[in-house]
Amino acid sequence: MGNYRFHTPDGVIDILPQDASVKRKIESDLRELFSGYGYSEVETPGIEYYDVYSSENFVATEDLYKMTDMDGRIISLRYDGTIPVARLAATLMKDEKPPLRLSYIGNMYRFKKTGGGKLREFSQAGVELLGIQNSEADAEVIALGIQSVLQTGITDLQVSIGQVEFFKGLADEWGLSADDASELSTAIDQKDIVRIEKTAERLGLSEDAKEILDMISGKFGTYDVLDAFEAKVKNATSLSALKNLREILDVLSDYELLQYVSIDLGMLRSLDYYTGVIFKGFTYEVGFPILGGGRYDKVISTFGRDMSAVGFSLGINLILIALRRQDKLPEFVEVDAIVGYADGEGMRKAAFATAKELRAMGNKVVVDTEHRSEEELDAYAEEHGIDQVVFIEEEEDSEEDENT
Amino acid sequence: MITIALSKGRLAEKALDLLEAAGYDVSAGREESRKLILEDEKTGLRFIMAKPSDVPTYVEYGAADIGVVGKDTLLEEGRNLYEVIDLGFGACRMCVCGPVSLKGKLDQIPNKRVASKYPNITRAYFEGTKKESVEIIKLNGSVELAPLIGLSEVIVDIVESGRTLKENGLDVLEVVADISARVVVNRVSMKMKEAEILPMIDALRKQVAIRNAQKAAEGK
Predict the structure, then answer these.
(1) Taking 80 as the threshold, does the pLDDT of residue A2 lie above it?
(2) Which end of chain B is more exposed for a tag (fewer CB within 10 A), N or C?
């Protein structure tokens, strides 16, 4: 085999100063935003027992990075932020009264195909609102998700909101088997009209049902979509899903965020995992959603605590790509000022004091360590694009020297 | 600007015809040249000419908004895309084929060796649908050779007329899937460029419906 010492493995990257600085800024802004909404940050381990992820088929186990520990137990690198937080809420935090508002920012690891901005190690920021099962909670999380994306500097944001119970209600009403429901929901999720029609035909669905399927694939909007479906749908589960969406829109309207969202009832992924509203956020220039989330009321109970939950996560690496391609990366300045000093008693000490003052004002300040003269320092600053040069010398004497 | 990835060759021609019939100016796409990107500022359309098996990749990653590609490629590549229209042309079938003598006896051979240009489709069919483990041998062309020369018992390949099979003493044993050209859309583009893409899909669907109706009429 070749020598790999100069390379990083597939799907992981070095992050260089400009990106690192933007990334840290985004992370600290998000941290502030989350805590401003009363979400407390938790830090879960970078490795988990494999069982945490595998027991309930929450994730495709092929996608987990797996190792064994000293006792032969299988451990896995952290795949996402939600499942460990669910474990935490049901175990160490089991005596904390609901609701819990928790957030995390950290690296996740997925052993998947890479490309198009998808990495195997990537940073996610997210929140989980645990213990409240109503539309206000759903809307709070969506609103915070939207504000998080806006906070990063992205302005073109489109969030699609769906509700998996809407389809589950229809599947029940139409008497579909689990396999048939899964076949139909996959076709809907892929907007594969031909397959939807064929499946509907095979299942002998009524004309009314076919019309609803048609609407699911073709209708996007906000209140108008809900009106149209409410007039058409009869089963209680689907109607209450529509009511949930209507209430969410009402709340988002009060947040003044309605312009970012649209309803898409054809979003039907991970039906075993999600139990209510689901949403995804998109922007230009990246081929994958940058924001994703939803309600998952059954997950925490698998860890032994009956607790509803809704949350989102944000793909920070994808957002960085979007910011770059949209030309929205802030200008990167490595150093604002350089402070040099002349030879002589107390000069270095004065330089340090000056640098400290400049830093206190928020500048990035380097103190010259190579004893440059004032001219050399000017040339150096010019070459390295440093705006400000300060040279410390004995004022009176040097003035006089120059004059003589 | 909408970027459309076309599968180089006959499929690209037919896709351009259909777009034209749907009222789009596709003269940029027809330009006779060796250029791989054909762009028209006026119409807001940009065509890229890609190898068919790469079209789903361009679209999934968002390098292209829309793609026209065969269902065989989509099945083999298994990408996460919206698959919005069955264009109807390029119709054929993906089949398990083998010696005529194996007809109806396929399930009696244990530990089958299957040769194919489509290892993923083959695996999904045997492991997923038939619940059977097989040895898959990846070939790049003239797959019919494999059972003739003893490299494999059967093959999984595209069958159009079936003539090559017949002339070599092979036949269709089982049908895996019906294949035809599809229009795929990137999941993000569908949302971010909805105003351009949805009308295009509608117009194309109408054209396809007209053509299907014509075909049906001719058939009668």
Answers:
(1) no
(2) C
pLDDT tens figures, A71-85: 999 999 999 999 999
B2 touches chain A (CB under 8 A): no
Q: What is the mean pLDDT of residues A355-373?
A: 96
Compare all CA atoms of chain A with the CA of B71 and give the residue at the minimum distance.
Answer: A192
* Binary contact (B62, A289; C-beta < 8 A): no
Distance CA A142, CA A124 (A): 16
Mark whether B140 and B168 lie in a shared domain: yes
User: Is A244 buried (19+), middle (13-18) or exposed (0-12) by CB count in 10 A?
Assistant: buried
The domain spans of chain A are 17-178+219-325, 351-403
Mutation pick from A113, A119, A190, A291 vs chain B, by most beta carbons of B within 10 Å, is: A190
Q: Is A199 on the interface with B (CB under 8 A)?
A: no
Q: Which residues, at least 6 apart from A221, have a Cβ–Cβ distance to it below 8 Å?
A: A262, A263
- Residues A193, B205: C-beta atoms closer than 8 Å: yes
Q: Is A47 on the interface with B (CB under 8 A)?
A: no
Mean pLDDT across chain A, nearest whole number?
Answer: 93
Helix A135-151 and helix A17-36: axis angle, to 10°?
Answer: 150
Q: Decide: helix, strand or coil at residue B91.
A: coil
CB contact under 8 Å between B192 and A156, yes or no, is yes
Structural domain for B75, as ranges: 2-90+180-219
Looking at the complex, does the CB of residue B209 fall below 8 Å from at least one CB of chain A?
no
| Residue A156 confidence (pLDDT) | 92
Chain B CB contacts of A282 below 8 Å: 187-188, 191-192
Residue A126 β-bridge partners: A104, A313
pLDDT for B220 equals 63
Residue A289: pLDDT above 90? yes
Task: Indicate yes or no: CB of A160 within 8 angstroms of CB of B84.
Answer: no
Residue A33 has pLDDT above 90, yes or no: yes
Within 8 A of B57 by CB-CB distance, chain A residues are: 115
Same domain (yes/no): B85, B184:
yes
Give the total number of structural domains in chain B: 2
Q: Which CATH superfamily is domain A17-178+219-325 in?
A: Bira Bifunctional Protein; Domain 2 (3.30.930.10)
Instruction: Say whether B187 and A289 touch across the interface (CB within 8 A).
Output: yes
The CATH number of whichever domain residue B169 belongs to comes to: 3.40.190.10
Q: Give the span between the Cα atoms of A108 and A369, in whole angstroms.
A: 40
For residue B80, which of A189, A214, A119 has the smallest C-alpha distance? A189
- Three state DSSP letters for A172-227: HHCCCCHHHHHHHHHHHHCCCHHHHHHHHHHCCCCHHHHHHHHHHHHCCECHHHHH
Pairwise pLDDT comparison (A117 vs A63), residue with the higher score: A63
Q: Are B30 and B105 in a shared domain? A: no
> Is residue A1 scored above 70 in pLDDT?
no
A182 Cβ under 8 Å from any chain B Cβ: no
Q: Which residues of chain B have pLDDT under 50?
A: none
What is the pLDDT at residue B89? 86
| Whether B184 contacts B56, CB under 8 Å | yes
Question: Which of A132-141, A152-161, B102-111 bottoms out in mean pLDDT, i.e. has the lowest?
Answer: B102-111
B100 and B71 co-located in one domain: no
